[in-house]
Amino acid sequence: MPQTNFTLAGCTISLDTPRPIQITDNFRLFLGETGTRCFDVTMQEVDRLPAFPTPPVFTNYAFSVFPEGDGFLRRYHDHKEDDRPYAVGRLKEDRETVEYLAQDRLFFSESQNCFSHIALEEILLHFDRLILHAALVETQWGGLLFSGPPGIGKSTQAALWEREEGAVQLNGDRPILSRDSGGWTAWGSPYAGSSRCFVNRGAPLRAVVMLEQGPVCRLTRLPLAVAFQRLYAQTTVNAWNPAYVSRVCTLLTQLAEEIPIYHLVCTPDRRAVACLRDRLRQGGG
């Protein structure tokens, strides 16, 4: 069985597939076994899927979640064919198994669609990693994350920092955050949205900046409770899994306690850069 290794945020995910897969551009820089922690994912072709007598606890356009023992499994369905089921994924400790119908092997022919059928956010949380909806730039002060709802200007602010301060953008949509004895690190990921920025590198996290558009620039540090709420809203959270939610809340509380979470009312120009830069120059808390 072919094996392909990918390293995300310092963790290696080993993908075992029935046949070789095509490596899409966004995953190419993440190839290789360079992480210090490893998680195994096995994909298998089957002739039929198991039946599920109980109703799902969660459903979206891509999959439904069912309780199984003390955990959960995901049944993937094709929304273009009246939600026809074609794959089942089971996550157990440090291993995940995905069974899919042989007739639907095209859904598992490349790295992008293989990763679309694994519980990536739960695998990363297994190693105390979080996915945050944000744009990540590396600056002389460390990593800056620009976050907020879609269309708020994350890509604009990241581009401004590249132009005005020589920052390097590491990711434009879903960076990964990790915490260890050295503090917090923000990592690029294969998921970058329209930015097409897939850099497999991490930067020590200096601040998270929650954006709001406005006619003038104003920067304030959010109190802990508000910072937690804003972070939670931009984090991938599986609400059906109490243990998952508990661990995410613990990590987000630590993040809000240890890293400045700012609210930046800003214009889409260099004034926004200057406003944040001045606070960073002062060593701003």
What does this structure look like?
The chain has helices at 25-28, 111-115, 120-126, 154-165, 224-233, 242-258, 270-281; strands at 3-8, 11-16, 37-46, 58-59, 63-68, 71-78, 84-92, 95-101, 129-131, 134-139, 142-147, 168-171, 176-180, 183-187, 202-213, 218-221, 261-266. By secondary structure, the protein is α+β, with helices and mostly antiparallel strands. Strands 9, 10, 11, 12, 13, 14, 15, 16 and 17 form a nine-stranded mixed sheet that branches. An eight-stranded mixed sheet has the order 1-2-3-8-7-6-5-4, with no helix packed on it. Helix 5 crosses helix 6 (242-258). The N and C termini lie far apart (52 Å). The model has no long low-confidence stretch (mean pLDDT 94).
Q: Figure out the total of helices.
A: 7
Helicity, as a percent range: 10-25%
| Low-pLDDT stretches | none
Radius of gyration based on Cα positions: 20 Å
Q: What's the overall average pLDDT, rounded? A: 94
Distance between the termini: 52 Å
Strand share of the residues?
35-45%
Would you spell out the secondary-structure blueprint of this structure?
Elements: E1 3-8, E2 11-16, H1 25-28, E3 37-46, E4 58-59, E5 63-68, E6 71-78, E7 84-92, E8 95-101, H2 111-115, H3 120-126, E9 129-131, E10 134-139, E11 142-147, H4 154-165, E12 168-171, E13 176-180, E14 183-187, E15 202-213, E16 218-221, H5 224-233, H6 242-258, E17 261-266, H7 270-281
Parallel strand pairs: 2-3, 3-8, 11-15, 15-17
Antiparallel strand pairs: 1-2, 4-5, 5-6, 6-7, 7-8, 9-13, 10-11, 10-12, 13-14, 14-15, 16-17
Helix pairs in contact: 5-6
